Amino acid sequence: MFERQMPDHFGGALWADQTLAHPVGIAALIAALVALVVLPRRYAMLPLILIAVALPGAQRIAVLTLDFTFIRIVILATLALAAARGHTRGLRLGLPDLLIGLWVSWGMIAGGILSGGFSGVISGAGGAIDTFGAYLVGRIYIRSLADLRHLLLWLSLIAIPMLAFFLVEQFTGRNLFGFFGGVPEETMVRNGRLRAQGPFSHPLMAGVFWASLLPCIAALWMARAGSRPGLVLAMACMVLIVANTASSTPIVAVLLGIGGMGVYLLRRYLRLMVAGGLACLVGLHMVMDKPVWHLISRIDLSNGSTGWHRYNLIQQSINHFNEWWAFGTKSTGHWGWGLQDITNQYVLEGVSGGLLQLLLFVALLTCVFLRLGRTLRRTRNRAAYWLLWGVGVSLFVHCMSFLAVSYFGQLVCLFFIFLGSAVAVSERSPSTVRRREHAMAHPGTAIGSPG
After folding, report:
1. What pTM was estimated for this model as a whole?
2. 158 is in which domain, residue-wise?
3. What band does 432 get if pLDDT is binned at 50, 70 and 90?
């Protein structure tokens, strides 16, 4: 029987309060900041995307007890540039913006209460840059489906050379990004299989990120909003990256994306299917000997999945509800062996900030889904409809992945950029819908995007 080994500092922040900056990484950061200033508005997100996708997320500069990761530095610089150049003009705030603001604010308050001092608030403020800051970048610079198309095409292009790094890691057992620090130089091995991770903080983070992009890239292919052979090549690269992570959760994410795109054929019955799926889960819960979330323990597509740990984490969070419901809890290690490893984003929200933080997070995701659904019902352009559908499926993939993993490292920034983009393209005003459809009909222009 395979036994999981808990490494030193497991479940903690290995590089907190430590400067970890390789000269090449510093050069990349400087280049990103210079590019941010000289590039036109339509490319303003590209430096942040490149830093997040192609550089280990642990690269940071510590000042006193404050950690300025390279990603945080670029987020702050991007927002400062947006304010200075008036890129925020025309931004329409709505319910999702209110919900994420409340979620972030409560997280800082709960962190202060839980830590018993101001240090928790400071830590929460740092996390707010990675979440709310990245969300604002997506909201500001993605104003139309044409803007989103450009972002997706950039990521498609990045996936091609990124696969080469993952293949080298798979065949040599050495991570070429290891010399930066923040990721291991020797590739992680589980049950005899190498788990490549590239510049990402963990193989799961790499796999889930690239898997979550597949529905959007497939939507571009269906919408003919890019070179179809090039998009096929990009999707093939993303699938191979996922395969090289040797992790069940990203593989399940790929399958969920395929299933979500297939549901397009039954889109008229989507509400009925959702209601039927929920009813089926309730029915299974009533007739099974164990709770329905025990099904997670049976998923193993990589010959080494830790599904039982994920089931046990959910079960123990329910059993210890009285410990965390108010403001969260400082530790979950006493819930069971290895349960300091919180591999569930929803459980992490509750543990970090109590029931209110969990409810705000779920409300935020639900609100974005509902906005996308309303926008889809108003959309008549086929290309625009496909891309909006792809965004919805990608968000669904993220939400399901949250049941098996909690995001950390650069994936936090990348997810909230995506979430901000999803909110931006789901604008419901008739004029915005007309601009969105015109932009997809004329992909060479970014209609609806200032400057």
Report:
1. 0.91
2. 95-441
3. low
